[in-house]
Design a protein that fits this description.
With 214 residues, the protein is mainly alpha-helical. The chain folds into two domains: 7-86 and 120-132, no CATH class; 151-212, no CATH class. It has helices at residues 7-19, 37-48, 60-63, 65-68, 71-78, 80-99, 102-129, 163-168, 184-194, 206-212. The site of one zinc ion has 5 residues, from helix 8.
């Protein structure tokens, strides 16, 4: 519903980003054009949104064969166009139902539909661009990997901006592992776990976090 492509394509691109982080082959690294000022600015734009317009397809057969083999996930991926319609139709319908006229429907479509999607896109893109350039790096990542923690984006990104920890420990269910770090996504996973809907969640234990500290 976030208008970010079908789930299998999303995962494939994301895994490729992890496989080649900030090296040639990374679909969206801000270091693509070097580290001098001009190259860095160009790289920032590329990592933020430019990469989406390049002809650089990530083959799901190679990066997400497990998802391609999963019937349910394939159905969700196929439903992507319908979900795009739904993510706009729902606010329109809610606006109309609450306000009573189509004008309210269009107003809700604008703010709770188009503006919401645009803002969320910029937050997601900022994790790809800003969270590989500015912020803190309290955890050890692989060579070349420049992922950072950017507290400013923590709430807006639902915790995703704890990106340095995420790259240091990609399977950790919580990105904001330090005191006072917000991570609403981890809270949602915890709730789903309590409801019994998810299992085998990999929570960051104290040892696990300490072992990855820089
Ligand atoms: Zn990253
Ligand atoms: Zn990741």
């Amino acid at each position: 519903m976030s208008f970010q492509g079908d789930v299998i394509g999303w995962v494939a691109t994301h895994r490729r980003h992890h496989a080649f982080t900030d090296r040639p082959g990374d679909p969206h690294s801000p270091y693509r054009y070097g580290t001098h000022l001009r190259g860095q600015l160009r790289g920032l734009l590329h990592a933020h949104v430019g990469w989406l317009f390049r002809n650089d397809r990530t083959p799901p057969e190679r990066y997400a064969p497990d998802l391609l083999a999963d019937r349910d996930i394939r159905a969700v991926a196929r439903a992507f166009p319908a979900l795009c319609v739904l993510t706009l139709a729902l606010p329109f319908a809610a606006g109309w139902a609450i306000g009573g006229t189509w004008v309210y429907g269009v107003t809700a479509l604008l703010w709770a539909g188009l503006v919401r999607i645009a803002l969320l896109h910029h937050v997601t893109w900022s994790v790809n661009s800003l969270c590989h350039m500015i912020g803190e790096r309290p955890f050890r990542t692989r060579c070349h990997d420049r992922a950072t923690n950017l507290w400013l984006l923590a709430l807006l990104s639902f915790g995703e901006s704890g990106h340095n920890l995420h790259h240091a420990d990609p399977t950790s269910a919580r990105h904001g592992v330090d005191r006072g770090q917000l991570d609403p996504s981890a809270a949602v996973i915890r709730l789903l776990e309590r409801l019994g809907w998810v299992h085998d969640v990999r929570w960051p234990t104290a040892d696990r976090v300490a072992a990855r500290r820089a």
